[in-house]
Design the sequence.
C-alpha cells in the first residue's frame, strides 16, 4: 500500500470515527417506537422559556401545555372550565376570586400540588419577566388559607382573569424550579407529558413522553409528542410534503393550497387584525389627526378588499373593528363601516380644513415586507394624506409605546374578551393608547364592562365598539386568516381564544 | 517535533485569547436593547427593566467581562440570553451536525479533488481541459447558489432525497446519508475545484523535478512514479489548501445549513446574530477560533510528518 | 513613469485581445453601465407595488414578471446591480487602501509594525469571514455598507500579504539602496520600483476579491442579515426561496445575475493571469512545422575512426522546443558514435546543447522538447521509434543515468535504501531481500563507509559526495551497457570530484560499460574519456580521440577553449593515486 493511500485511509478512518463517536455520544439510540403512538407537531415559534414565571403563550402554548397544567382551562368556544381548580367564584365586589384546587396532583419530581405552591407561582408571574406579567399586575395578593383553597385579591375588578388563568398566567410549576438555574430549559410540571431532555435539541426539537401518573389520563391521546420548530415557510412546507408532520400551524394562509394538495386538512380562523392605530386622537402630535373627520377620511381612503387581495391573497375578512369574533363587543355590521371611497375621504378632509392634504409621519419597520408600506402610502397619498415612512430598527417599540407617532400600522391580536381589548389600547393608561388619550365615553363604558353584571357588560361593550369605530380611533384593514393543518389520521379542534389548538384537542382520528 | 507542537499550540492559544477579548468588548459595547428583544418587543418598560437586571446587563462592561472571562476559563461560557441553555451545551448539541457536514465534505473534496487533479496533470488533452473548466465554474459560483440549485433539482424536483431536516447517524445510517449527501456536495464543489487545481499544478511542477527524471531514468514506470513519488511530494501544498478549505467550509456551512434546515452551528450563528444573543455569539467565536487553531495545527503536524527533515528532528 | 504607463496600456489591450478577456470585459462593462444608469434604465421604481402583478409571469409591461409584492422584477434586478456592485466596491476599496498601505509600510520599514501586522493578517486570514461578519452584524445592525466595509478590513489581509512579499523582494534589490544613495526620496523609490512590481498581482487579486465580495454580500442578504429595504441579488434570492412553493421562477433571475457576474470576474482574472505569465504549454496551439535554423553553423571538422558496430549511434539529431510562434532549436544536426567499452566526452559551454543531447538518448527531455530530426540507435534499436513501454524497459536496465546535482536528484521523502531497492525489484524482478542485499553491495562498491547506515538514511542526512555515490550506485545497479553521465562532478567539492572520477574510472574498467559523459571541464575529459566531441550552440564543431584533439585542435573554437585554460601546461595525464 502506498504512502498516499495509507494517508488517505487514515484520514478517512479518523474522520469517520470522530463523526461516529460524536453522534453516538449525543444521542443514545432509541428504538422503542414499536406500537407506540407519536404526534409530530410543527411549531412556528421558538420556545422562549419553560419557567412559568416568564412563560409566553399563543404559538408557544404547545411546548408548555405538554408539561404543565393551568389553574383553569377553556373549551374551544372560550367557555372557562375546570383545570387544576375544580371550582372558582367571584365575590360581590368582583375583586376576590376564590378557587378550589384538586388534591391529587403531583409534579414530576414527586412534590404535591398545594394552594401555596399555586399562590407562589402566581406571585412570581406577576413579578416576573413574562410579556404578559401585566395581566396580574392588579393582583394585590394570592393566599392559601388551606391546601386546596386559593384566594386571589385584585385592586380592581378584572373580568378577564379566569381566561388569564387558563393561559400562561395560570401555569403551575414545581417549587423546585423557583431557584433552579436551569428553569428556563428544564420544566418540572404536573402535566400530561414529561420532557425527554436527552432527545431534545433546544431551539429545534422537543421530545415528550406521556406521563403515566397524570390525573386527567383521558385527555392524553399519544404516547409521545415530538415538537419541531420550523422557522421559515420553505422548511415547513418541505416537511409537510415529506410527510414529516402530523399537525401544525401555518406561517401564512397562502400555504393552505399547498398543504391541501399534500393531503392535509386545513382549518382557518381569525384571531388577529392588521391595520392602523390612529393614536393621536387629541391632535397633540399632528393636529390634523385630532379631527375625527380626518381620521374617518383615513378609513375611507383604504381599499380594504384590494389590500387584502394584494397583501394576503384574499385570505381573510375585511373589517373596521378591532374586537374579536368571540368577544361580547363584536358586531358584524362594524366589519364594513367605511367602504372604499376616496371621494368621500377628500370631502371629509376638505370639511376639516385640509383640502390640500397634510403630511403624516409613520414608522416603517423590517417585520413586514417593504412593499406593504409602499402600498399603504399609495392609497393614502391618493386622497391627500402624504405619508412619510420613518425607518426604524431596534428602537421601534420603545419609541412607539412612548408616543412618538400620531399613527402607525400594526398586526395585533383580537382578544377573546372585550375587557382585554379595552384594557390593551383604549384606556388612558393602556400601553397601546400611545398618546394616552382620555375619552370620557370610553372610560364610562369601560367601567361597566369591567365591573357590571354580564348583560350590562355585554351591552356596554357593544356600545363602546360602535363608538370607537365611529370616532375612527383605528383604521383596521382586515383580519387575516390563520390556519392549522392536520394530516390524515389526525384531527384537531380550533381554539377560539388561542392561535394553536389546545393539546388535549389534538387526537388521532377514530 | 514536540517543541514544534508546543510552540504552535502556544501561539494559537494566544490568538484565541486575543480574539475572545476583542470580540467580547466589541459585541457587548454594541449590544442594543437586547432585554426588550428577549422579553418581547411589545412588553412594558418595567418588564424590560426587570429582565435587564436579571441578566446583569446593567452592570459596567468591565465587570461583565471579568465575569465572563472567569467562567470561560473554567469552561463555562454562560447561558444563552434567549433560551437560557448553557452555551457549551447548545454548541455541543449542534456541533456533531456541522462536523458531519464539514468532515464529510472535506473527505469528499480530498478524494475527488485529488483524482481530478491527477487526471488533469497526467492525461492532459480533453481531460485536462474539462477539469480546468469544471474547476473554474465550481470555484466561481458561490456555494449557496449551488446548494439552492441542488435542492431545487434533486430534492424538490426529482424528490430523491428529503429537502430539509437532519436524521442522526445513530438513528438511521441511510437516513443520515439521505439528509447529508446534498449538503455535503453543495459544500464541496468550490473546494474540489480548488484542490483539483492545486493538485494539478503541484503535480505539473513535481513532474519537472530532477529526482523524478532520475527515477524515470531508473526504469520506474509512469504510474508508480506518479502515485509513489509525484503525488506524495505534491501532497504538502495540497494539504495546506485542504486545511484552508476546511476552515472556509465552516463559513460555507452557515448558508448550507440554512438552505437545508440542518440544526447545526451555522443555523445557530444566524439566529444568534439576528437576535443579538451575545453569549451565544461569543461562544461561537471562541469555538470557531479553537477549531481553526486545531485545523491549522493538524495540517502543520501532518506536513511535518510528511517531511522527513521535520519528522526526525 | 511613462514606461510603466505604456506597459499598463498594452497589458489591457493584450487581455482584451484574448477571447476570454474580451467576453468577460464586455459583460463587466455592461454590468457597470447598468449599475450606474439604474435610475434611468429601470422601467419602474424598485419599490413600486402593483397589486395586480403579484407573482405574475413575464408580460409586455413586466419583462421578467412580478415578485411576491407585485414589484417589477427587472427593475429590482437593475437596482440590485447597483447595490451589489457598490457593496463589493466598498469592500475592495477599503481592503486595498488598508492592505496595500500596510503592506508597503511594513515591507519597507520592517520593525514592530511589520511583526504586529503580520500577526494580524494571519489571524484574520485564518478565521472564516462569515462568522466575523455575523458577529459584526449583531452589533451594527442591518447596514450592508458598514458590513461590507468590515469585510474590506478582513480582505485587506490578502492585499497586505501580496504587497508585503513584493516589497520585501524588491527591497533586497541593490538598486533601491543605490537610489537612496543617489538622494531620491523614499516616496519616489517606493513609487517607482515597488508599485511597478506589485501592480500585476494586485490587479489579479482585485478581480478575485471583487467576486468574493459579491458572493459574500449575496450570502448575507440571503441569510436575511442584510438591509431588507434595499433591493439586492441575495435578498431577491431569499424571497425566491421563501416563495419556492408558489413559483420557482423568482429564484432564477438573481441566481443568473450572481453566477454570471462571478464567472465573468473569474474569466477576466484568468485571462489577465494568462497574459501576465504568458503561460502556454504549447499543447494544442497552432502547429508550426520545424525547419532547420538557417544559417547552419560551420561544418564540423571530423576526425577519427569509423566505428563498426557502435553501441550508441546518434545521427543527425535535432532537438527543438515549441514556442508561441516559432521553434527554439537547441540541438542541431548532431552526430556522435560511442563504441562498446568506450568513454565518450561531450564538452561545451552552458547552453551548448550537450545536456539536451544526453537527455534525448534517455528519452527524458523536459516538457515541450521534441526530437524533431535524426535518429538515435542503441545496439541497433532506434530509440526514437520505440514505444513508451519499451523505452521504459531499456531505461534503468541497459542504459543508466548519473545526474548532475546529487541532492535534488534524490526523493527527500524516501530513504536511500528504498530508492535503490525499488528500481531493482521493478527492472530485475528481485525479491525484497535480494534487492536489499544487492543494494548494500552496491553501496559498498561505491566506497560508502557504512552501507547499512546509509541504506536507512534519508537524503537530507547524507553529504553531497555520498549522495553522488548513491546515484552512481543506482546507475550501475543493473549492470547497464551504457551510462549517460550529466556533469557528475560539477556540483561537488574539488577533493570529492577527484574521488568520484576515480570511482567512475574503476567501475568502467571493471564492467567494460560505455559512458557518454557530459562536461564543461577539460580536466574531466582528460581523466576519463577516450574520445571527445566539442559542442557549440547546438552543433558539434570538432570530434576525435582525446589525445588527438588535445594535441592538435583543428577548430578555432576548440583551440580557443583549450587556450583559455589558465595554465599553459599540457593537459594532465592520468591521476597519480
Sequence:
Amino acid at each position: 500500500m502506498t504512502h498516499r493511500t495509507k494517508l488517505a485511509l487514515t484520514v478517512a478512518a479518523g474522520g469517520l470515527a470522530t463523526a461516529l463517536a460524536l453522534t453516538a455520544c449525543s444521542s443514545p439510540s432509541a428504538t422503542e417506537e414499536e406500537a407506540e403512538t407519536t404526534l409530530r407537531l410543527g411549531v412556528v415559534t421558538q420556545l422562549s422559556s419553560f419557567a412559568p414565571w416568564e412563560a409566553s403563550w399563543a404559538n408557544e402554548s404547545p411546548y408548555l401545555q405538554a408539561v404543565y397544567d393551568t389553574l383553569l382551562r377553556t373549551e374551544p368556544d372560550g367557555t372557562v372550565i375546570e383545570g387544576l381548580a375544580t371550582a372558582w367564584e367571584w365575590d360581590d365586589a368582583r375583586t376576590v376570586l376564590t378557587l378550589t384546587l384538586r388534591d391529587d396532583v403531583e409534579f414530576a419530581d414527586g412534590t404535591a400540588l398545594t394552594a401555596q405552591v399555586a399562590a407562589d407561582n402566581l406571585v412570581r408571574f406577576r413579578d416576573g419577566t413574562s410579556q404578559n406579567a401585566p395581566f396580574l399586575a392588579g393582583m394585590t395578593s394570592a393566599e392559601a388559607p388551606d391546601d386546596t383553597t386559593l384566594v386571589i385579591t385584585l385592586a380592581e375588578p378584572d373580568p378577564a382573569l379566569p381566561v388569564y388563568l387558563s393561559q400562561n398566567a395560570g401555569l403551575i410549576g414545581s417549587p423546585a424550579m423557583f431557584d433552579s438555574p436551569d428553569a428556563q430549559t428544564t420544566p418540572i410540571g404536573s402535566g400530561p407529558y414529561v420532557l425527554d431532555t436527552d432527545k431534545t435539541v433546544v431551539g429545534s426539537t422537543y421530545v415528550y413522553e406521556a406521563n403515566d401518573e397524570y390525573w386527567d389520563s383521558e385527555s392524553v391521546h399519544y404516547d409521545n409528542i415530538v415538537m419541531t420548530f420550523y422557522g421559515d415557510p420553505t422548511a415547513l412546507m418541505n416537511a409537510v410534503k415529506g410527510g414529516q408532520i402530523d399537525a401544525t400551524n401555518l406561517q401564512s394562509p397562502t400555504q393552505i393550497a399547498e398543504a391541501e394538495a399534500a393531503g392535509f386538512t386545513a382549518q382557518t380562523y381569525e384571531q388577529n387584525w392588521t391595520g392602523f392605530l390612529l393614536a393621536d386622537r387629541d391632535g397633540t402630535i399632528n393636529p390634523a389627526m385630532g379631527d375625527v373627520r380626518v381620521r374617518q377620511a383615513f378609513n375611507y381612503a383604504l381599499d380594504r378588499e384590494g389590500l387584502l387581495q394584494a397583501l394576503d391573497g384574499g385570505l381573510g375578512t375585511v373589517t373596521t373593528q378591532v374586537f374579536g369574533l368571540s368577544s361580547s363587543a363584536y358586531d358584524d355590521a362594524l366589519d364594513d363601516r367605511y367602504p372604499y371611497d376616496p371621494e368621500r375621504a377628500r370631502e371629509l378632509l376638505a370639511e376639516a380644513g385640509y383640502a390640500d392634504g397634510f403630511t403624516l409621519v409613520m414608522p416603517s419597520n423590517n417585520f413586514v415586507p417593504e412593499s406593504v408600506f409602499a402600498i399603504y402610502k399609495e392609497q393614502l397619498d391618493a386622497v391627500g394624506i402624504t405619508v412619510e415612512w420613518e425607518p426604524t430598527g431596534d428602537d421601534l417599540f420603545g419609541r412607539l409605546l412612548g408616543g412618538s407617532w400620531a399613527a402607525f400600522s400594526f398586526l395585533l391580536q383580537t382578544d377573546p374578551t372585550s375587557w382585554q381589548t379595552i384594557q390593551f389600547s383604549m384606556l388612558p393608561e393602556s400601553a397601546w393608547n400611545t398618546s394616552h388619550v382620555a375619552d370620557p365615553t370610553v372610560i364610562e363604558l369601560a367601567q361597566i364592562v369591567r365591573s357590571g353584571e354580564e348583560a350590562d357588560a355585554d351591552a356596554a361593550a357593544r356600545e363602546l365598539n360602535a363608538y370607537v369605530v365611529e370616532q375612527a380611533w383605528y383604521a383596521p384593514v382586515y383580519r387575516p386568516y390563520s390556519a392549522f393543518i392536520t394530516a390524515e389520521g389526525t384531527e384537531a379542534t380550533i381554539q377560539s381564544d388561542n392561535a394553536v389548538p389546545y393539546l388535549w384537542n389534538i387526537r388521532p382520528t377514530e | 517535533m514536540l517543541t514544534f507542537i508546543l510552540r504552535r499550540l502556544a501561539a494559537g492559544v494566544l490568538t484565541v485569547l486575543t480574539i475572545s477579548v476583542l470580540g467580547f468588548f466589541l459585541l457587548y459595547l454594541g449590544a442594543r436593547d437586547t432585554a426588550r428583544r428577549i422579553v418581547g418587543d411589545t412588553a412594558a418598560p418595567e418588564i424590560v427593566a426587570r429582565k435587564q437586571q436579571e441578566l446583569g446587563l446593567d452592570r459596567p462592561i468591565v465587570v461583565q467581562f471579568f465575569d465572563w472571562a472567569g467562567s470561560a476559563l473554567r469552561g463555562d461560557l454562560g447561558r444563552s440570553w434567549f433560551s437560557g441553555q448553557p452555551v457549551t451545551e447548545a454548541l455541543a448539541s449542534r456541533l456533531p451536525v456541522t462536523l458531519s457536514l464539514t468532515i464529510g465534505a472535506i473527505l469528499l473534496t480530498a478524494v475527488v479533488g485529488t483524482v481530478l487533479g491527477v487526471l488533469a496533470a497526467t492525461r492532459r488533452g480533453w481531460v485536462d481541459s474539462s477539469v480546468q473548466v469544471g474547476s473554474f465554474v465550481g470555484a466561481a459560483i458561490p456555494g449557496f447558489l449551488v446548494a439552492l440549485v441542488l435542492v431545487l433539482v434533486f430534492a424538490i424536483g426529482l424528490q430523491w432525497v428529503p429537502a430539509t431536516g437532519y436524521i442522526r447517524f445513530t438513528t438511521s445510517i441511510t437516513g443520515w446519508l439521505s439528509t447529508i449527501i446534498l449538503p455535503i456536495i453543495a459544500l464541496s464543489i468550490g473546494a474540489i475545484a480548488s484542490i483539483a487545481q492545486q493538485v494539478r499544478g503541484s503535480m505539473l511542477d513535481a513532474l519537472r523535478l530532477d529526482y523524478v527524471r532520475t527515477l524515470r531514468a531508473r526504469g520506474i514506470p509512469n504510474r508508480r512514479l506518479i502515485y509513489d513519488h509525484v503525488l506524495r511530494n505534491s501532497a504538502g501544498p495540497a494539504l495546506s489548501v485542504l486545511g484552508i478549505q476546511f476552515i472556509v467550509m465552516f463559513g460555507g456551512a452557515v448558508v448550507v445549513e440554512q438552505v437545508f434546515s440542518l440544526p447545526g452551528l451555522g443555523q445557530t450563528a444566524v439566529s444568534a446574530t439576528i437576535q443579538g444573543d451575545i453569549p451565544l455569539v461569543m461562544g461561537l467565536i471562541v469555538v470557531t477560533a479553537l477549531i481553526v487553531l486545531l485545523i491549522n495545527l493538524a495540517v502543520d503536524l501532518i506536513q511535518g510528518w510528511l517531511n522527513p527533515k521535520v519528522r526526525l528532528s | 513613469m511613462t514606461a510603466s504607463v505604456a506597459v499598463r496600456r498594452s497589458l489591457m489591450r493584450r487581455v482584451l485581445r484574448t477571447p476570454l478577456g474580451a467576453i468577460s470585459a464586455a459583460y463587466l462593462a455592461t454590468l457597470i453601465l447598468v449599475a450606474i444608469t439604474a435610475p434611468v434604465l429601470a422601467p419602474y421604481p424598485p419599490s413600486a407595488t402593483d397589486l395586480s402583478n403579484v407573482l405574475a409571469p413575464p408580460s409586455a409591461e413586466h419583462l421578467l414578471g412580478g415578485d411576491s409584492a407585485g414589484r417589477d422584477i427587472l427593475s429590482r434586478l437593475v437596482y440590485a446591480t447597483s447595490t451589489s456592485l457598490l457593496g463589493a466596491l466598498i469592500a475592495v476599496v477599503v481592503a486595498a487602501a488598508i492592505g496595500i498601505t500596510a503592506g508597503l509600510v511594513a515591507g519597507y520599514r520592517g520593525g514592530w509594525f511589520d511583526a504586529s501586522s503580520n500577526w494580524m493578517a494571519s489571524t484574520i486570514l485564518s478565521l472564516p469571514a462569515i462568522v466575523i461578519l455575523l458577529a459584526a452584524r449583531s452589533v451594527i445592525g442591518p447596514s450592508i455598507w458598514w458590513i461590507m466595509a468590515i469585510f474590506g478590513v478582513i480582505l485587506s489581509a490578502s492585499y497586505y500579504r501580496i504587497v508585503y512579499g513584493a516589497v520585501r523582494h524588491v527591497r533586497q534589490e541593490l538598486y533601491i539602496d543605490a537610489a537612496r544613495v543617489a538622494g531620491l526620496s523614499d516616496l519616489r523609490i517606493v513609487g517607482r520600483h515597488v508599485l511597478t512590481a506589485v501592480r500585476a498581482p494586485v490587479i489579479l487579486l482585485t478581480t478575485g476579491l471583487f467576486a468574493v465580495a459579491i458572493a459574500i454580500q449575496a450570502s448575507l442578504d440571503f441569510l436575511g442579515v442584510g438591509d431588507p429595504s434595499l433591493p439586492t441579488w441575495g435578498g431577491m434570492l431569499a424571497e425566491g426561496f421563501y416563495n419556492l412553493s408558489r413559483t420557482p421562477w423568482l429564484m432564477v433571475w438573481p441566481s443568473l445575475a450572481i453566477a454570471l457576474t462571478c464567472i465573468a470576474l473569474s474569466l477576466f482574472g484568468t485571462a489577465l493571469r494568462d497574459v501576465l505569465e504568458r503561460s502556454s504549454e504549447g499543447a494544442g496551439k497552432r502547429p508550426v512545422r520545424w525547419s532547420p535554423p538557417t544559417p547552419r553553423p560551420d561544418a564540423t571538422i571530423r576526425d577519427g575512426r569509423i566505428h563498426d558496430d557502435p553501441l550508441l549511434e546518434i545521427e543527425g539529431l535535432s532537438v527543438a522546443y515549441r514556442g508561441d510562434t516559432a521553434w527554439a532549436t537547441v540541438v542541431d544536426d548532431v552526430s556522435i558514435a560511442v563504441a562498446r567499452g568506450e568513454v565518450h566526452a561531450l564538452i561545451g559551454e552552458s547552453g551548448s546543447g550537450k545536456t539536451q543531447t544526453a537527455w534525448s538518448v534517455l528519452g527524458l527531455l523536459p516538457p515541450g522538447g521534441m526530437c524533431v530530426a535524426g535518429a538515435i540507435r542503441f545496439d541497433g534499436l532506434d530509440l526514437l521509434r520505440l514505444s513508451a513501454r519499451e523505452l521504459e524497459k531499456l531505461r534503468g536496465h541497459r542504459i543508466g543515468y548519473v545526474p548532475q546535482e546529487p541532492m535534488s536528484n534524490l526523493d527527500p521523502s524516501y530513504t536511500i535504501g528504498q530508492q535503490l531497492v525499488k528500481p531493482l525489484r521493478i527492472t530485475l524482478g528481485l525479491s525484497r531481500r535480494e534487492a536489499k542485499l544487492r543494494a548494500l553491495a552496491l553501496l559498498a562498491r561505491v566506497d560508502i563507509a557504512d552501507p547499512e547506515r546509509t541504506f536507512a538514511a534519508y537524503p537530507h542526512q547524507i553529504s553531497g559526495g555520498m549522495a553522488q555515490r548513491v546515484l552512481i550506485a543506482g546507475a550501475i545497479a543493473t549492470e547497464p551497457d551504457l551510462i549517460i553521465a550529466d556533469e557528475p562532478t560539477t556540483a561537488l567539492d574539488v577533493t570529492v570530484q577527484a574521488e568520484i572520477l576515480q570511482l567512475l574510472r574503476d567501475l568502467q574498467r571493471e564492467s567494460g560499460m560505455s559512458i557518454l559523459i557530459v562536461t564543461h571541464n577539460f580536466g574531466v575529459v582528460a581523466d576519463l574519456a577516450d574520445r571527445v566531441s566539442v559542442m557549440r550552440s547546438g552543433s558539434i564543431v570538432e570530434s576525435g580521440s582525446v589525445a588527438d584533439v588535445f594535441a592538435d585542435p583543428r577548430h578555432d573554437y576548440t583551440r580557443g577553449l583549450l587556450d583559455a585554460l589558465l595554465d599553459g601546461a599540457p593537459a594532465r595525464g592520468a591521476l597519480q593515486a
About this structure: The first helix of chain C runs from residue 2 to 17. Residues 279-285 of chain C have pLDDT under 50 and may be disordered. The interface with chain A takes residues 47-49, 51, 54, 68-71, 141-142, 228-229, 241-242, 244-246, 413 of chain C (CB under 8 Å). The radius of gyration of chain C is 34 Å.
